[in-house]
Amino acid sequence: MHEDLKQRMIEAGRILEAAGQGDWTRGHVSIRVPGEPDRFYMKPSKFGLEEITLDNIITVDLDGEKVDGEFGRHNEVYIHSEVLRARPDLNAVVHTHAPYATAFSALGKPLQPVGHPGSIFAEGLPVFSETTELITTAERGKAVAACLGEHGAMLLQNHGIVTAAPTIEQAIYLALSLENACMMQLWVEAAGGAKALGKPEDIKAKRKHMFRDEMFKATFAYLVRSLKRG
Predict the structure, then answer these.
(1) Of 7, 20, 136, which Cα lies nearest the Cα of 76?
(2) What is the Cα–Cα distance from 26 to 43, expressed in whole angstroms?
(3) Hey, which residues does 163 pair with through a beta bridge?
């Protein structure tokens, strides 16, 4: 059932791994089950992001309990269950230990619109700093969801990133864009910090251009084609 949706989830995992966001078996992706808002498909534990298949995807409910599938669920399932519970407008959640974003979070500085990717987050990027430990309880999951608020992306202090969106294409776009934005600012910080960021109206215009459904879909499709080229 829903093989097309699961196939996009498979592609999403491979895209994240190819982009350098894999951390052995520790990242995860989820998609809400169509027509069943209290359940979602999720990458199983003990598999890499690039190892997601139609046969190993599991189904989980909003209490974080596995309801279908052969393999185990991630301990940090509550990032997904509580974000999806709090945000019925969202259908896909990504959590990775993206290295540049994790390193950037240790600076304790706001993300700046250094380049096009940074402009996407110019209206605010929440940082969850309540703990740097794993999100292994529903209570911590609720706290993460509360910190995310109405945003679509956030940093977990010294831990990684969370992105959430109506579609998996948008969630992946945000995950890759956030990592690139953090990478760019780390470069700038190493050179002494940003001295010129452009006019506020230019940044707003760039965000409008970069943050479009057409952009999400086109980027995802390109990345899938890139995977097939090897």
Answers:
(1) 136
(2) 10
(3) 94, 153
DSSP symbols for 107-176? TT------SHHHHTTTT---EE-S-SS---SHHHHHHHHHHHTT-SEEEETTTEEEEEESSHHHHHHHHH
* Backbone region of residue 198 per phi and psi (left: phi > 0; alpha: psi in -120 to 50; beta: other values): left
**Quick one: DSSP state of residue 13?**
H
Q: Which of 99, 104, 103 is nearest to 24 (CA)?
A: 99
Distance between CA atoms of residues 93 and 81, nearest Å: 9
Domain parsing of the chain, residue ranges:
3-218
pLDDT tens, per residue, the chain with 230 residues: 899 999 999 999 999 999 999 999 999 999 999 999 999 999 999 999 999 999 999 999 999 999 999 999 999 999 999 999 999 999 999 999 999 999 999 999 999 999 999 999 999 999 999 999 999 999 999 999 999 999 999 999 999 999 999 999 999 999 999 999 999 999 999 999 999 999 999 999 999 999 999 999 999 999 999 999 98
Q: Looking at the chain, how many residues does it have?
A: 230
CA torsion sign for 112, 175, 148, 135 is negative
Q: What is the CATH number of domain 3-218?
A: 3.40.225.10
Provide the 3-class DSSP secondary structure of residue 54.
coil
Do 182 and 98 touch, CB atoms closer than 8 A? yes
22-153-19 Cα angle (round to 5): 25
Classify residue 54 by burial, with Cβ atoms within 10 Å: 0-12, 13-18, 19+.
Answer: exposed
